Every structure is written in structure tokens, then in C-alpha cells.
Amino acid sequence: MDFERFRVTPGERVLDLGCGAGRHAFELYRRGARVVAFDQDADELAGVEAMFGAMRLEGEVPDGASAETVRGDALDLPFPDDHFDGIVAAEVLEHIPDDMRAMRELLRVLRPGGRLAVTVPSWLPERVCWALSEDYHTAPGGHVRIYTRAELEAKLKAVGFRVGGHHHAHGLHAPYWWIKCAVGVDNDANPLAKVYHRVLVWDIMKRPLATRLAERALNPVIGKSVVVYLGKPAAPGGAPSAPARETADAL
């Protein structure tokens, strides 16, 4: 996600749907949001909760920010209508058979004028992974579909979202997953996969200029993820808040 496109105002209530290990939830927390990290996996949520506590102890959290974890089902979100100012749904819709029901739930709990960022695996890199490995997409809880961006946007528009901009990300990650699929997705001992993984970790930690430029060039072609930014239309006759107006202008 690009937080210049998905801007967070301190004190806003933001949902991280399918938070996984919590990467986006942690950044939202650092930016002063009131974060709800939501997932089905209790073990993942325990780790996220522990990191929230560590961030508070280390003084990484602005005054007024808050964070909690909630376990539940994306098809039946335990939140009232119009509850969140923003929602992040990163790499989750491709796991859900009834994806449009999940999209309708996202629309329901997002306030009018609120904003949504959705990421899913990009069509081409994902198609290569499926071709190389049956295990990659048949494991329980794995990916059940490959989206084109046009299909993803059409479904989100159909439930009521207004589609804004998009971009691709993680161009350096696609070759790693192709290697993993070719040698076995569970074969962590493969030398090539191990070396490439070390490179990715080094890139994430150090962010050297060379890899930043390489990824910027690769993203439009083989970016592992596509990110789509959306908004929920303001209520008829209602004036959106300042953050919502900024989102509307960006879209």
C-alpha cells in the first residue's frame, strides 16, 4: 500500500481485514489510527497483539492511537454499519469463495465518504505460480481464484464502491514465488530459494537504491500484487468530512 494515496488522519478508525502477521496494522497504528486488526487465525492475532504491546512499550505509538485484535469471519463482520473511516483488505479476497459477499460487508461497515484499499495477487505472476505448482493453489485456505484488475474493479463497483487509482507492487517478489513453485512450495531448504529469500530480507531491511529502482521498473510488468484504491459514496445530501473530501479529490 501507498500511504500517500491511502492517507490516515490520527484518530480515525481503520480496519485491517485479514491482517495476517499485521504489517499494515502496525503502520496504521504508528500513524495514529484507532486500528482493528481482524483475522480468522488466532495464532496470527496473538502475534499481532504482542507486537502492539511492544510498540506501546517502545514509544512508537502517538497519543490517541489505539489498537485491538478481533477474530471473526469476513462474510459476517461483527461491526455496526458505517463504523470505519478506512479499511485495508490486503491479500485476502483471493482466499474467499464468496468474495462479493465479503465486498458487501466491507461496504456496509465503511462510513459514507470512507476509503478502501484492496490488494490481490496480480494476474500474470499468479498465473505462472498456478502453472508451476498445484500445491500452491490447492492447499486448504489457499487461493481460490486469479483476478484480473478489471474483474476485481467490476465486482467492487457492482456492490457500490467508487473505483479510484491503482498500482502494482512487489516486482522483486514474483521471481521468488516462481522459484518456490518450481522447487516445491514447502521446500525451504532449496539453495536458490534460500539465497533469494535472503536478498528479499536484505532489501526490506536496508532498502538500497539499486533494488528500489529495480522494483520500480519491474512493478508494472511482474509486480506480485495489484493495489486498488476505492471510496464509498457520501450519503445523499450529506457533506463529507475533510478526510473524505481529500479521498474524493484523489479518486
UniProtKB/TrEMBL annotation:
Origin species: Actinomadura litoris
Protein name: Methyltransferase domain-containing protein
Superkingdom: Bacteria
Alphabetical list of PANTHER family matching this protein: 2-METHOXY-6-POLYPRENYL-1,4-BENZOQUINOL METHYLASE, MITOCHONDRIAL (PTHR43591:SF24), METHYLTRANSFERASE (PTHR43591)
Biological process terms in GO annotation: methylation
Record keywords, A-Z: Methyltransferase, Transferase
SUPFAM superfamilies the UniProt entry points to: S-adenosyl-L-methionine-dependent methyltransferases
InterPro entries registered for this protein in UniProt: Methyltransf_11, SAM-dependent_MTases_sf
Residue stretches making up the Methyltransferase type domain: 15-117
GO molecular function, one term: S-adenosylmethionine-dependent methyltransferase activity
